[in-house]
Design goal:
Elements (H helix, E strand, L loop, with lengths): L8 H16 L4 H7 L6 E9 L3 E2 L3 H11 L4 E4 L6 E2 L4 E8 H31 L6 E3 L9 H10 L13 E3 L1 H7 L2 H11 L6 E5 L2 H10 L3 E5 L3 H14 L4 E5 L7 H5 L5 E3 L2 H4 L6 E10 L1
Parallel strand pairs: 6-11, 7-8, 8-9, 9-10, 10-11
Antiparallel strand pairs: 1-5, 1-12, 2-4, 3-5
Helix pairs in contact: 1-3, 1-4, 3-4, 4-5, 6-7, 7-8, 8-9
Length: 293
């Protein structure tokens, strides 16, 4: 069972409030009509049930959604993050003012279903690497606004996070190299302008570029869309000449190919698949009973 580092609430709360405002608009008309028509403030209890197999991620975030609507809500996760669930399994229970439970249901469910889908597919890729020292890394191909949560979910699924944003590390991609006029020139520009201790990674597509990156003394070399035979040759070259340089492979990564790519000896295989190809994990919320405080 893998665990990720949950982002701080100071960072997450602003996102959650925005998503709640998007959904609530000028007011949850159905809920307000039902709840405010009661003689006393109604309270409710609800369960969260898994409807499919998968890896759970995001339950603490769901609890936070409800508590932002009303701090009297009590949220109780019944499973830990990263647990593999089965259909019919109880995931969480929540109780509190019925208005908060009904108004927060969609946002909370959407987030957990999305994040659990990411964690589930990430875990399937990680499973393919069993017994190998290679780690699975995610990418920046995330839904705008959801990056910190999707990358958290990837961690829960067993992946390691690549840079969170463009300011985390330097990655010189093909277009950077073309604009600068080659690997050596691009690395020289970066070293003259970027603060210490940012790492420098260079994306390479040929053995010639790999050789240039070694001479330039970069920290990480990415082997991008290389055939396996070329990748093996590149790994051997790097290990022989600069064993301290980390090696990442990317491009054409799938569940069917990830293990063979890792077996070339790279340190990391990066893929956007957990974010771009995962399906939401089906979860339902059911009100069990209502009463007054």
């Amino acid at each position: 069972m893998a665990k990720g580092m949950l982002p701080g609430w100071l960072q997450v709360d602003e996102l959650l409030r925005g998503w709640l405002l998007e959904d609530l608009g000028r007011g949850d008309r159905a809920t307000l009509a039902v709840v405010r028509g009661a003689a006393q403030e109604p309270w409710g209890r609800a369960t969260w049930i898994a409807k499919a197999e998968g890896v759970i991620a995001g339950l603490p975030i769901a609890g936070r959604v409800f508590q932002l609507l009303d701090d009297r809500v009590v949220w109780g996760a019944e499973v830990e993050e990263g647990v593999a669930c089965v259909p019919g399994q109880l995931l969480a229970q929540v109780s509190g003012p019925l208005e908060a439970l009904l108004s927060g249901e969609r946002v909370a469910l959407n987030l957990v279903m999305r994040l659990s889908g990411v964690a589930t597919l990430a875990s399937q890729y990680v499973e393919q690497l069993t017994g190998l020292p290679t780690q699975l890394a995610d990418t920046r191909k995330t839904i705008p606004g959801l990056r910190i949560l999707e990358k958290y979910a990837a961690q829960v699924g067993g992946a390691v996070n690549h840079r969170m944003g463009l300011d985390d590390a330097v990655m010189l991609k093909d277009n950077h190299l073309a604009a600068a006029g080659g690997v050596a020139v691009a690395v020289e520009h970066v070293r003259s302008l970027c603060p210490y201790p940012l790492t420098i990674e260079v994306e390479t597509e040929s053995l010639a570029q790999v050789a240039e990156a070694i001479v330039a003394g970069v920290d990480i070399i990415m082997l991008d869309n290389m055939p396996l035979a070329m990748m093996q040759e590149a790994v051997a070259m790097i290990r022989a000449k600069a064993p301290h340089i980390k090696i990442e492979a990317s491009g054409n990564v799938s569940l069917a190919t990830v293990r063979s790519i890792a077996q070339t000896g790279v340190d990391y295989v990066s893929t956007s698949a957990p974010m771009t190809q995962s399906r939401w994990l089906d979860i339902s919320m059911r009100i069990q009973n209502t009463d007054t405080q």
